[in-house]
């Protein structure tokens, strides 16, 4: 017999046990082997086999923790927040929590000092006083409301009825009437209110025409009709916000009519205030900085045509020209679009202020004339010692009887100089700004300012200093010399060959783009797969809930029916005993 020794396991057995402990065994029927289209020797592939069952189980657990929890609280909007002291602190003992809560309750009951009590008394007094003041204010408002205009208005069927609503009312009351009319017939209330608001928009445009006409009427006697214009802008803006398309069509139709009226005279004269009011309101209702706009583009063309063709011979013409120029500058201040009619008109006004016997050598463009009575409309013959600049009044656009005096000459000259300064700052980024302002600089240097006041001289000096600070002109365009044709060189097409990698042709940017497109497609595919899985998971969950509710209902119905049968049996027994 051999010696009995201790059993020593083989090294291979230890390795097998270690590998069994480390690696988990999988059911061979759950392993899915992916087919390889082209098998390459020596290439290691990580996707040659997979475990769809394990992956599906992991996805189900993940959805139960995330998607299922959201599905359960989908109809719940309230959240319970536990604000008890120490409840959210896991390291605090229940005894410490109770002690802190008891101390806080005692502080709440007995923590008020005498100063706090006095503050509370003062607060109560202030509250009572405020209540009394509010009650009195409410009574006064209710009494005033009885005497005020009504709060509800229906949209009239014709313009005569609309004008009758505005008669015998002040400008502020007219604004209140229109505001309440739009509020009572707002499109958000449904029905045909949008058509009613469009009618109100047309009525207001007609009212503006009547108010600003040369022989315009006023709703209230002894009140200028121009006082009502500002009160009509806010209702127009409100209706434009709710019905922009119809509002644009209505305003554009009015502007086209005014344009046709000016075309009949070939734009030889500036129109009246009844035309300028719509050109001004268009910029308040619609954006003027758009490159192309269905309303503002025709408006700007209208203004440019007035500056380029209308002649200046009276005080009203000068006022209209300055109003048109300021309005056009307001519309192009954001887009900084170059409009040569602006500088030409301002240069024409400066030319009218130059006092010289021979003015034919100075720069001037039509419609201005270098000779004749209109060439010296703004020349100061006598010195002026005092002058205060005034604003242009919109009513002066209809004043044909006003004569040109020295105050008007200086005022118009100052307006032109200031507008030229604004235009220089607006177009300073243009490469040809110095060439654009050269005629203006020549006219200012040709003027004699001895009859003007010191503040006017200062304005001219500031404008000349702005011209000096403008960027210098660029060099003239020169035709580029023809380059000699280079000899065609042939370079070898060297390509890097890597075994096992698919060869792709193209530039680096193209290959990078294709790589990103491939990643995007892969992510989309994964996202679609995840959405399909989530949809199927929710469908299964809904089916389980439906089956569970059906089973509960069936069980409850069975209980009810069994109870009814027992009651019926007991009733029959009692009936037999009787």
Automatic annotation (TrEMBL):
Principal subcellular localisation of the protein: nucleus
Keyword Nucleus: yes
One Gene Ontology cellular component: small-subunit processome
Pfam families: Nop14
GO biological process: maturation of SSU-rRNA
Region (Disordered): 1-30
InterPro entries listed in its UniProt record: Nop14
Subcellular location field: Nucleus, Nucleolus
Keyword entries, A-Z: Nucleus, Ribosome biogenesis, rRNA processing
Family the UniProt entry places it in: Belongs to the NOP14 family.
The protein's role, per its UniProt record: Involved in nucleolar processing of pre-18S ribosomal RNA. Has a role in the nuclear export of 40S pre-ribosomal subunit to the cytoplasm.
Protein name, per record: Nucleolar protein 14
Taxonomic source organism: Portunus trituberculatus (Swimming crab)
């Amino acid at each position: 017999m051999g010696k009995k020794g201790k059993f020593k396991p083989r090294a291979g057995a230890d390795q097998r046990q270690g590998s069994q402990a480390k690696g988990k065994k999988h059911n061979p029927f759950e392993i899915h082997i992916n087919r390889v289209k082209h098998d390459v020797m020596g290439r290691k592939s990580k996707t040659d086999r997979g475990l769809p069952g394990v992956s599906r189980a992991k996805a189900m657990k993940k959805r139960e923790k995330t998607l299922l929890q959201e599905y359960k609280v989908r109809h719940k909007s309230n959240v319970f927040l536990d604000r008890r002291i120490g409840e959210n602190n896991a390291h605090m003992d229940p005894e410490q929590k109770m002690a802190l809560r008891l101390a806080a309750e005692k502080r709440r009951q007995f923590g008020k000092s005498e100063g706090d009590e006095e503050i509370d008394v003062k607060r109560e007094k202030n509250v009572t006083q405020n209540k009394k003041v509010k009650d009195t204010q409410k009574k006064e408002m209710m009494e005033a409301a009885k005497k005020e205009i009504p709060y509800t208005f229906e949209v009239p069927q014709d313009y005569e009825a609309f004008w009758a609503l505005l008669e015998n009312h002040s400008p502020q009351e007219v604004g209140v009437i229109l505001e309440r009319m739009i509020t009572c017939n707002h499109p958000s209330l449904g029905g045909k209110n949008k058509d009613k608001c469009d009618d109100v928009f047309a009525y207001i445009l007609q009212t503006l025409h009547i108010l600003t006409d040369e022989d315009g009427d006023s709703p209230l006697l002894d009140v200028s009709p121009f006082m009502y214009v500002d009160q009509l802008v806010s209702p127009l803006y409100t209706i434009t916000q709710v019905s922009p398309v119809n509002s644009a069509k209505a305003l554009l139709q009015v502007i086209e009519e005014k344009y046709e009226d000016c075309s009949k005279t070939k734009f030889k004269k500036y129109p009246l205030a009844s035309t300028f009011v719509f050109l001004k309101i268009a910029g308040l209702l619609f954006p003027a900085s758009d490159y192309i706009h269905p309303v503002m583009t025709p408006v700007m063309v209208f203004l440019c045509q007035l500056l380029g063709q209308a002649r200046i011979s009276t005080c009203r013409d000068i006022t209209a020209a300055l109003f048109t120029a300021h309005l056009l500058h307001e519309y192009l201040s954001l887009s900084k679009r170059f409009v040569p009619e602006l500088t030409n008109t301002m240069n024409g006004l400066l030319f009218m202020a130059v006092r010289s016997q021979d003015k034919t050598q100075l720069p001037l463009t039509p419609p201005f004339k270098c000779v004749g009575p209109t060439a010296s409309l703004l020349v100061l013959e006598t010195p002026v010692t005092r002058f205060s600049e005034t604003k242009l009044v919109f009513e002066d656009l209809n004043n044909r009887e006003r004569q040109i005096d020295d105050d008007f000459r200086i005022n118009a000259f100052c307006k032109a100089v200031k507008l030229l300064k604004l235009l220089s700052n607006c177009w300073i980024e243009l490469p040809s700004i110095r060439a654009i302002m050269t005629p203006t600089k020549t006219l200012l240097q040709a003027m004699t300012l001895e009859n003007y006041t010191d503040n006017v001289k200062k304005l001219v000096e500031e404008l000349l200093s702005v011209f000096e600070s403008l960027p210098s002109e660029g060099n003239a365009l020169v035709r580029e010399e023809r380059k000699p044709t280079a000899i065609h060189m042939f370079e070898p097409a060297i390509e890097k060959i890597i075994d096992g990698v698919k060869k792709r042709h193209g530039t680096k940017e193209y290959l990078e783009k294709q790589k990103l497109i491939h990643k995007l497609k892969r992510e989309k595919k994964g996202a679609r797969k995840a959405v399909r899985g989530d949809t199927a998971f929710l469908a299964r969950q809904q089916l389980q809930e439906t089956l569970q509710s059906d089973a509960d209902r069936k069980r409850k119905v069975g209980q009810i029916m069994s109870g009814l049968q027992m009651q019926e049996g007991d009733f029959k027994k009692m009936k037999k005993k009787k």
